[in-house]
Amino acid sequence: MQKKLILDTHLLNITVNRLCQQLIENHGDFSDTAIIGMQPRGIYLAEMIHRKLESDINRKIDLGYLDTTFYRDDFRRRDTPVKANTTKVPFIIEDRNVVLIDDVLYTGRSVRAALDAMIAFGRPQKVELLVLVNRKYTRHLPIEPDYVGKDVNTMDTQKVLVELEAQGFKDNKIWLINKESE
């Protein structure tokens, strides 16, 4: 297995700062906007973005976590039952803007499931998608992010591995892994 470093801690900090500035340009003081991190791994990026935004605009911003397990189109196709994660959306999203955050956009199926799951909390005015890594050329559904940390050209045989300090890793690093042929 070969690993190639895509983003190190320094570049990730620059990327998160840029994404936050783009969000502030489009959402101002976030009075009509909430942030929702997709379980399981999108919540760590959502928390990073949330902390930085609150610090930059000096205002509280609604943050939630959304689990899409039971909304996935492959839910019933698995041999073993999937364990659901926590959904925590302690606010109404009806007629509000929502920034949906995930670490990696791959096929688009998780985002489709998240859009379905969000309806349980109201009908948002607008939904935007922010991803740390946008895997190019792998989409199964016509879903594209509004905010991208890094576009990466990938093949189906490759994997993007996100290691964040908030997940227990020593440093923030994003890797592209090439699986060796068997």
Explain the overall architecture.
- This protein has helices at 9-27, 42-57, 109-118; strands at residues 2-7, 33-38, 62-66, 97-105, 126-136, 147-153, 158-163, 173-178.
- With 182 residues, it is an alpha/beta fold.
- It has three helices and eight strands; from the N terminus they run βαβαββαββββ.
- The N and C termini lie close together (11 Å).
- It is 25% helix and 31% strand.
- Keywords: Glycosyltransferase, Transferase.
- InterPro entries: PRTase-like, PRTase_dom, PyrR_bifunctional.
**Low-confidence sequence ranges:** none
Largest sheet: 5 strands, parallel
- C-alpha geometry: globular
Number of helices in the DSSP assignment: 3
Specify the structural class: alpha/beta
Radius of gyration using CA atoms only = 16 Å
CATH topology category name: Rossmann fold
List the helices and strands and how they pair.
Blueprint: E1 2-7, H1 9-27, E2 33-38, H2 42-57, E3 62-66, E4 97-105, H3 109-118, E5 126-136, E6 147-153, E7 158-163, E8 173-178
Parallel strand pairs: 2-3, 2-4, 4-5, 5-6
Antiparallel strand pairs: 1-8, 7-8
Helix pairs in contact: 1-2
Quick structural summary:
The chain is α/β, with parallel strands linked by helices. It has helices at 9-27, 42-57, 109-118; strands at residues 2-7, 33-38, 62-66, 97-105, 126-136, 147-153, 158-163, 173-178.
